[in-house]
Design goal:
Chain lengths: 416, 366
């Protein structure tokens, strides 16, 4: 706890807004930075240089990190390859496996609530002749396992289902999905960018064949990620990046030693502190939700609350325009959805997939809690949110009508 | 400061400059996802924008033309992969050669310079992408890029140039030379590993193969490596610091009797590819490592496989001779003491293996 308190002082100055966007990116843990620093300075060698001790020392750092990442997900270190991030991992996993097996199989199963980089990769593959089934999700954001089972054919090369959703934080039933994939003899890829380090993951128990991990979502640096590639039974991939043949040919390019070391250290810290941290965040999540529910009516939590990481809330505030709310709460850094698309004014496709109506999707906020979030910050955030929601509702004619008992859905709006 | 160990392998990776580290640590502590609209997100975005300007300025490009990648390998892949007809020089880096496995090879002469008349013949008739590196990573030989561009333009072809080893060491001017695509790597010029760029001339056709969140104006998806990019920018700004690295190299070449490859043509000021007659490169690098000097037997990328240099082979060097060449590459923190330690180690080894009282220079003449 002491380490965390010191960390907060380093990370947030008084004039900065309260950071509640831990699904977009996490501040780096100072312990991670400390582990990285020697590899920026005196241990600077190219880990692929075999002719001198600078290279060997860098290689040692990289291999230790590989072991740390492997341990976090119950893998063997030989099964972990470093990439530039989860986007690359997802691109490589899906495209790599699809292209390798394309002579025998041409079908991919994924879900409508995946991260954009999975959906875009699938769309590109559709253009080159693959068939993709986009599974719907239930109202709580989870997939229906029977629907999954029925979607898999003998032409299905890979099923790609994210472990934890980036907008609503719901945890998919990985073990069950893995079991179905193994039965149906298809590969199982999971985008675990939001899950790794936050919930226990075990590639053996979950029968995962490919798993994507991101550094900066687990208090490590940006620009680094990993892809777990199962060796038994072996999964084969066509590489995305070719050249010097690093990472057993799966991914060429000089490995960024400090970033690898940072990812490894971040993984180890997450693993050590996972249980305690999950309990602490659960309390904060409950405190936040209770605080809002006590003082505001007509707010809805999007996505399942039980099967959800404790560091996420996604809430729609009825009769409030999302953009105005975002602009109002200047003291808080939150988002209306995924960071990648947060500049766009479109309602979230994830919320739409849950069946959330467009108006409600427009009023939603994603609130991310994490390692450096304090009780006091949660309380301040609740106060600020309540104040601004009330203010905006007081100005809203719709709110007024709703309070008077008018069913807004019955109104036919004049076209303009 | 005289280091206890001398590092002369800057072409593999260059140690990071202190100013770069300072800039990065600040960015690492600040955090923020540059795609987020809130304040920490916008601050991260501003950091990237500044670095984009710095990198663009290094190579005579516009900021909007810079696409940040995870390094030189990814940049080279992005530029040449999937192109229908590619012409590459025979001495390109593996990240170009393997990304365009069906590419036609443009030969080089005994000095390691691309054969322009061969290029002209190959260009005749059909359009293509020509990929020729600015300067070679093993010999430092600089290619006649202006002529390559002129020939390509006449034939309606586009030009990609891998400037990973050249940028920051000699002037590189994308628009001045008319290059369409230019690859850069931060860690070769005193920046961090894990970041590079493909500079795409405004108007040059470009299709990405990395899809997702639409970062880098839809040219390269994935959350930006903010601190890495900041470090790249800082390194770009200070890399042309006016230090006379060539004087270091000249002392090496003036003191050692080995054959220097590409000596007759323009080369990078920091690179020497030199042979020690009859002594295998692996033997040399191990002996030098024990003597406290880091050099390499060629490119660092090949993951430990010690194979004969494809670059020297393309220059027509006999296999037995090519196996005796090492690469010595100086950089921003190299001092004359480092050079003297290398020279002493080289001479000690040479004397030992030749087991002779005859001075090395005389033996060479014999």
């Amino acid at each position: 706890m002491n380490a965390s308190m010191n960390a907060i002082k380093q990370i947030r100055r008084n004039d900065q807004p309260i950071y509640l966007d831990y699904q977009a990116t996490t501040p780096m843990d100072p312990r991670v930075l400390e582990a990285m620093l020697p590899y920026f300075t005196y241990k600077f060698g190219n880990p692929h240089s075999r002719s001198h001790s600078y290279g060997w020392e860098a290689e040692e750092g990289v291999e230790k990190a590989r072991g740390q990442v492997a341990k976090l997900i119950g893998a063997d270190e030989k099964e972990v390859i470093f990439t530039s991030g989860a986007t690359e991992s997802n691109n490589l996993a899906i495209r790599g496996v699809a292209e390798f097996y394309k002579d025998r199989k041409n079908h991919i199963v994924t879900t409508v609530t995946e991260h954009k980089c999975v959906l875009d990769t699938c769309r590109h593959l559709e253009q080159s002749g693959f068939e993709v089934t986009y599974l719907p999700v239930q109202k709580n954001g989870l997939i229906d396992l029977e629907v999954l089972r029925n979607a898999i054919t003998d032409k299905t090369v890979v099923v790609s289902v994210m472990a934890v959703n980036n907008e609503i934080g719901v945890i998919q039933p990985l073990e069950e999905i893995g079991k179905i994939c193994r039965e149906k003899k298809t590969f199982f890829h999971t985008d675990a960018a939001q899950a790794a380090g936050k919930i226990p993951l075990d590639v053996e128990k979950m029968n995962v064949d490919l798993m994507s991990i991101s550094g900066h979502k687990i208090y490590g640096p940006k620009g680094i990620g990993a892809l777990y590639v199962r060796r038994k039974p072996r999964v084969r991939l066509v590489p995305l990046i070719v050249g010097g043949g690093q990472e057993r040919g799966f991914r060429s390019g000089t490995l960024p030693t400090p970033l690898c070391v940072g990812l490894g250290e971040a993984a180890e810290i997450c693993m050590k502190e996972m249980d305690g941290e999950a309990k602490r965040l659960k309390k904060l999540q409950e405190r936040m939700l209770k605080g809002l529910q006590d003082k505001l009516t007509e707010i809805v939590v999007n996505g399942d609350l039980e099967h959800r990481i404790p560091g996420n809330l996604n809430i729609s505030f009825a009769y409030v325009e999302g953009e105005s709310l975002m602009m109002g709460i200047k003291g808080l850094s939150v988002s209306s959805g995924s960071a990648c698309t947060s500049a766009s004014l479109e309602p979230s496709y994830v919320l739409r997939a849950l069946g959330v109506e467009e108006e409600m999707a427009h009023t939603s906020l994603r609130i991310g809690l994490g390692r450096f979030t304090t009780e006091q910050e949660v309380d301040t955030a609740v106060d600020e949110l309540v104040r601004h929601v009330n203010k905006l509702r007081a100005m809203s004619p719709l709110w007024e009508m709703a309070q008077e008992g008018i069913d807004l859905k019955s109104i036919e709006w004049a076209a303009h | 400061m005289a280091a206890a160990y001398t590092y002369l392998d800057h072409n593999a990776t260059s140690p990071m400059r202190p100013v770069v580290l300072d800039a990065m640590v600040e960015a690492l502590k600040a955090g923020g996802n540059p795609s987020s609209v809130h304040r920490p997100g916008r601050a991260a975005r501003a950091r990237i924008d500044r670095a984009r300007k710095q990198v663009a300025a290094l190579v005579g490009a516009l900021p909007g033309e810079v696409v940040f990648t995870s390094g030189g390998t990814e940049a080279n892949n992005l530029a040449v992969r999937g192109q229908s007809r590619v012409l590459v020089s025979a001495i390109e880096h593996e990240s170009v050669l393997k990304a365009a496995p069906d590419a036609e090879r443009i030969p080089v002469d005994a000095n390691g310079v691309i054969d322009l008349s061969a290029l002209e013949r190959m260009l005749a008739g059909r359009p293509a992408l020509v990929s020729v590196m600015f300067a070679n990573n093993e010999t430092g030989v600089i290619q006649p890029i202006a002529e390559v561009v002129r020939l390509a333009r006449d034939a309606g072809a586009l030009v990609h140039c891998d400037a990973v080893q050249a940028a920051g060491k000699i002037p590189v001017d994308l628009h001045g030379l008319g290059i369409d695509y230019l690859s850069l790597s931060a860690h070769k010029l005193g920046g961090p590993t894990g970041v590079g760029a493909l500079v795409v001339r405004d108007g040059a056709p470009f299709a990405t193969d990395r899809v997702g969140g639409g970062q880098e104006s839809y040219r390269r998806a994935g959350t930006e490596n903010v601190a890495g990019i900041v470090g790249f920018g800082a390194a770009a700004e200070v890399s042309c610091d006016g230090r006379d690295v060539a004087a270091l190299r000249d002392r090496i070449e003036g003191s050692l009797p080995g054959k220097v490859y590409g000596a007759a043509v323009p080369r990078l000021p920091n690179t020497t590819c030199i042979s020690m007659s009859g002594v295998k490169a692996e033997t040399q690098v191990m002996a030098f490592d024990l003597a406290g000097v880091a050099v390499s037997a060629g490119s660092a990328c090949s993951s430990g496989k010690v194979t004969r240099s494809a670059v020297l082979t393309a220059m027509g060097v006999e296999p037995a001779e090519a196996e005796t060449a090492i690469r010595i590459s100086c950089g921003w923190n190299t001092v004359f003491e480092d050079i003297d330690r290398l020279i002493a180690a080289w001479q000690a080894l040479y004397t030992r293996v030749t087991r002779s009282d005859i001075a090395p220079a005389t033996r060479r003449a014999a």
